[in-house]
Amino acid sequence: MFCFVVVRATPHRQPRHAAFHRSLELAHCRTASHLQQMGVLFAEQSYLWLPIIYLKARKFALLFTLGSLSMLAAMALLRGPTAFCRHLLSSSRVLFIVVYLATMIGTLYCAMGLRKTVPTIICASAQA
């Protein structure tokens, strides 16, 4: 994963707090990179359970959902939380994101709270 930080060259010396802001941007990039790596790891782990999904459907759904949440969190850190929320809550995406978040919450609740396989499969199918 690559993270690029654009730093504008100015003819005069930058104030001391500019270096602090630049270090914060790099820290956000590193955190987002770790979250993306966790998301990919969870997704890969869930795909390993595909051959026996009928036996371990809850484990697959839980790992897949955690991977999706990690990727969303990484994207929020990369774009900035407020800009990302504005992007998600735009008029063309609001219905999709509400349904998607509801199915993720439903999948987590059915897999960890209820511990029932059939509702977990229904929520995970709606999520995908």
TrEMBL record:
What does it do? May be involved in fusion of retrograde transport vesicles derived from an endocytic compartment with the Golgi complex.
Name the record gives this protein: Vesicle transport protein
Family matches, as InterPro entries:
Vesicle_transpt_Got1/SFT2, Vesicle_transpt_SFT2
Q: Where in the cell is it found?
A: Membrane
Q: Which UniProt keywords apply?
A: Membrane, Protein transport, Transmembrane, Transmembrane helix, Transport
- Keyword Cytoplasm, does the record have it? no
Q: According to its UniProt record, where is this protein mainly located?
A: membrane
Family, according to the entry, reads as follows:
Belongs to the SFT2 family.
Any single Gene Ontology cellular-component annotation: cytoplasm
Q: Does the keyword Phosphoprotein apply?
A: no
